[in-house]
């Protein structure tokens, strides 16, 4: 014979289980609705048609340590920072193709590109924080390329191969965004000594045409 | 009044001194010391590039530097090296540059190795050369200390490149920003050894002893040739 107090306890616990089950089911339904709302693909803003344009990529070749300008046609956003980031992602994705002369591992490479206004770099205005600039007509901008740690970790190690990657990025940025006068690098938002153990990432690289075709040594010493 | 013998002795000594003067003027200047600074890159926890499953860059640079050091000593150079073992706490790049700059070497060689590319890469710092228009001597920033030596470094790279070409080794002369190369105040180059990958035969890995010996021999020859040219009258110093 089951005592009365045990039967009361059993039915109380059973009732609690039913209540908790109902509560969990309700919570699941609400969470599902929230997630479904996030994936709503209903257009809100009118789509903008971006026409393709000729862009010069400075492509590296490991075989002869050269940087060669190559013109390609593709669409880029107009906002300078987005434009620079998309351009660099396209450039570095080119190096992960099987026929690449400067093979790099595929995957996302550039986290962000910031363009700093020149006046924000002046030391005589210490109270003004560095503000990213979106005005493409402003001259003498400094580009900060924030590389992803995964890209740096998987980059081939060597003086020449790292220097070619840096020169390729600098030359391509210089050609597409002439207002850039210098390029600095961060890795995951932090200053980083080298790209993969060799190329210096702590200095500011002047944004110039980096076309390079190394000449062989000559009997007459070059000065 | 002085004794005639003393007068004769004084005159004789004057004549002797006068006759010796042209001889002392014609005596060749002592040959400047020929110290070579050798920096096997990486070491300790910084193993550098992974050249194969069991060969880190730091081991290869040390082995090659040991080989090159022996050849340079045989050729009459004195060598200052940043390491001859694999220390647990290696010198930083700034410390390596300080060692080099304090020893005032004739040439600085930084040794690296890579698994990318072909042959030997000779790298010169890409810091801009000094501006000759300025009359004043501004302080030299540490980050661009190599600037004043860029013309000599390019000549050194050319001499080493020629020696490697004469040894039938593919060579590329390039420029890059690299520490401690940018901080050295002597004529300086970085030698990066890459695998030998000819189009018509099998590739030779960087760990090949004969390949390393061939490169070391060519560099020693190139340094000797470059130093000889430096000693010629009118050569850029």
What report would you give on this structure?
The complex is a heterodimer of chains A (223) and B (237). Chain A has helices at residues 4-38, 80-94, 149-153, 159-176, and strands spanning 53-61, 66-74, 110-116, 141-147, 180-187, 205-206. By secondary structure, chain A is an alpha+beta fold. In chain A, helix 2 (80-94) runs antiparallel to helix 4. Chain B has 237 residues and is of the alpha/beta class. The longest helix of chain B is centred in the first third of the chain and has 23 residues, at 4-26. Chain B is globular, with a radius of gyration of 23 Å. The model of chain B is unreliable at 20-26 (pLDDT under 50). The interface between A and B is large, with 30 and 41 residues. Chain A: This is GerMN domain-containing protein.
Give the structure's gist in a few sentences.
Chain A is of the alpha+beta class. Chain A is built from 4 helices and 6 strands.
What is the rounded distance between the termini of chain B?
56 Å
Q: Kindly provide the radius of gyration of chain B, computed on alpha-carbon positions and rounded to a whole number of angstroms.
A: 23 Å
Count of structural domains of chain B: 1
> What's the SSE pattern of chain B?
HEHEHEEHEEH
| Count of individual helical segments of chain A | 4
Q: Which spans of chain B of ≥5 residues are poorly predicted at pLDDT below 50? A: 20-26
Give the radius of gyration of chain A.
Answer: 28 Å
User: Structural class, from secondary structure content of chain A?
Assistant: alpha+beta
Could you give the distance between the termini of chain A?
A: 108 Å
Largest β sheet strand count, sense and barrel closure of chain B: 6 strands, mixed
Classified in CATH, the superfamily of chain B is: Zn-dependent exopeptidases
Percent strand of chain B equals 5-15%
Give the overall form of chain A.
elongated
The CATH architecture term of chain B is 3-Layer(aba) Sandwich
Summed over residues and divided by their number, the pLDDT of chain B gives a mean of: 85
Number of strands of chain B: 6
Please give the number of β-strands of chain A.
6
């Amino acid at each position: 014979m089951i005592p009365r107090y045990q039967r009361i306890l059993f039915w109380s616990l059973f009732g609690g289980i039913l209540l908790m089950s109902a509560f969990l089911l309700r919570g699941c339904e609400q969470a599902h609705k929230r997630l479904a709302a996030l994936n709503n693909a209903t257009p809100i803003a009118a789509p903008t048609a971006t026409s393709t344009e000729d862009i010069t990529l400075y492509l590296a070749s490991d075989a002869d340590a050269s940087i060669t300008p190559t013109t390609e046609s593709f669409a880029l956003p107009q906002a300078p920072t987005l434009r620079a980031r998309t351009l660099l992602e396209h450039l570095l994705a080119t190096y992960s193709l099987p026929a690449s002369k400067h093979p790099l591992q595929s995957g996302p490479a550039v986290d962000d590109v910031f363009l700093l206004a020149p006046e924000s770099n002046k030391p005589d205005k210490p109270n003004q924080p560095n503000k990213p600039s979106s005005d493409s007509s402003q001259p003498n901008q400094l580009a900060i390329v924030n590389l992803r740690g995964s890209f740096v970790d998987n980059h081939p190690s060597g003086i020449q191969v790292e220097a070619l990657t840096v020169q390729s990025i600098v030359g391509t940025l210089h050609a597409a965004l002439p207002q850039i006068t210098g390029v600095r690098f961060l890795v995951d938002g932090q200053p980083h000594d080298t790209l993969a153990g060799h190329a210096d990432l702590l200095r500011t690289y002047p944004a110039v045409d980096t076309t390079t075709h190394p000449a062989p040594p000559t009997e007459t010493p070059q000065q | 009044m002085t004794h005639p013998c003393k007068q004769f002795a004084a005159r004789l000594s004057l004549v002797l001194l006068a006759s010796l003067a042209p001889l002392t003027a014609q005596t060749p200047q002592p040959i400047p010391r020929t110290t070579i600074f050798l920096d096997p890159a990486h070491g300790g926890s910084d193993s550098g590039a992974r050249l194969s499953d069991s060969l880190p860059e730091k081991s290869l640079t040390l082995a090659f530097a040991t080989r090159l050091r022996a050849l340079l000593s045989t050729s009459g150079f004195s060598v200052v090296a940043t390491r001859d073992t694999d220390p647990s706490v290696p010198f930083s790049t700034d410390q390596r540059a300080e060692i080099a700059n304090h020893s005032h070497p004739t040439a600085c060689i930084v040794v690296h190795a890579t698994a990318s590319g072909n042959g030997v890469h000779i790298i010169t710092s890409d810091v801009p050369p000094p501006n000759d228009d300025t009359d004043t001597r501004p302080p030299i920033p540490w980050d661009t200390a190599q600037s004043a030596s860029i013309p000599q470094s390019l000549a050194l790279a050319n001499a080493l490149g020629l020696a490697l070409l004469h040894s039938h080794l593919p060579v590329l002369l390039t420029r890059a920003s690299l520490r401690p190369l940018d901080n050295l105040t002597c004529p300086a180059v970085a030698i990066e050894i890459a695998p030998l990958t000819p189009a018509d035969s099998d590739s030779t890995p960087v760990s090949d002893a004969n390949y390393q010996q061939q490169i070391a021999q060519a560099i020693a020859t190139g340094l000797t040739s470059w130093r000889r040219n430096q000693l010629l009258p009118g050569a850029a110093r």
